[in-house]
Amino acid sequence: MTTVNGVGTNTGTSSNGGTSALSSFSKNFDNFLTLLTKQLQYQDPMSPLDTNQFTQQLVQFTSVEQQIETNQKLDSLLGVQSDNQAMAALSFLNNVIEAQSDQAVLQNGSADITYDLSSDAQTATLVIKDADGQTVRTMPVDTTKGSHELIWDGKSQNGTQLDDGVYDISVQAVDDKNVQLAVTTGLRGKVDAVQRIDGEFHLSVGDLDVPLSKVGSVRSPTAGSSDSQT
User: Fold this and answer.
1) pTM beyond 0.70
2) What is the rounded average pLDDT for all residues in the chain?
3) Residue 124 sits in the same domain as residue 203
4) Residue 3 lies in a domain
5) Which of 90, 111, 162, 219 could be cross-linked to 152 through a Cys-Cys bond (beta carbons 3.0 to 4.6 Å apart)?
6) What is the DSSP track for the chain?
7) What is the span of the domain harbouring residue 54?
8) Residue 139: which of 106, 113, 109, 103 has the closest Cα?
9) What is the pLDDT of residues 84-107, one digit of tens each?
């Protein structure tokens, strides 16, 4: 993977492979036609060759050639699609995204966390864990159905300021019948870089890589926040 102006890319050679395959096929097809011509030229007039086999081979060669050409066109279309995705990913640079994630980034002593409740809850608790899986903070959060945003001040349960970095997040919510509710968590943060990993573009928010497919919205850095909680 290479990085240019904050954009990481992986290079490939699929189009060259298709060209090589077509070139090799053309040579084999030319050899086949030469052999066919010679066989027809020197065949015994009293016992002519069976043309059915030649016809079947010609059909097979034609089918293979069409398949190779189709693959080349698909490679070309995929290349255009990849370029379009790269340009779209670049537009996220230095903007603030909201993305679905079970992790949040603590930067400069705060983290912007989002969550979405499928219905009203009786109780809802945000649970934050460190890289070792240890719970470092729990706090009650809004129990109303819908989307919410809060700002974590980066402090542990006992009030200690924690180091910046990536933390696991989850919201545990139950209704008035003590039934667990579905909750989707996410983050908001400024995009620092764009890179392509295993064919998919990722946006870097601090130390966290967010797949482009997980991004739900983008806004300018000057846009305000809706809720806050510490």
Assistant:
1) no
2) 78
3) yes
4) no
5) 111
6) -EEETTEEE----HHHHHHHHHHHHHHHHHHHHHHHHHHHHT-BTTB---HHHHHHHHHHHHHHHHHHHHHHHHHHHHHHHHHHHHHHHHTTTTSEEEEE-SEEEEBTTBEEEEEEESS--SEEEEEEE-TTS-EEEEEE---SSEEEEEEE-SB-TTSPBPPSEEEEEEEEEE-TT-PBPPEEEEEEEE--EEEEETTEEEEEETTEEEEGGGEEEEE-TTPPPS----
7) 9-90
8) 113
9) 666 677 778 888 999 999 999 999
Nearest to residue 212, comparing CAs of 50, 108, 127, 100?
100
Sheet with 135-140, strands from edge to edge, namely 103-106, 165-174, 123-129, 135-140
Q: Is 128 exposed, middle or buried (0-12, 13-18, 19+ CB in 10 A)?
A: buried
Question: Which of 90, 125, 155 is at the close of a domain?
Answer: 90
Confirm whether 72 is domain-assigned. Answer: yes
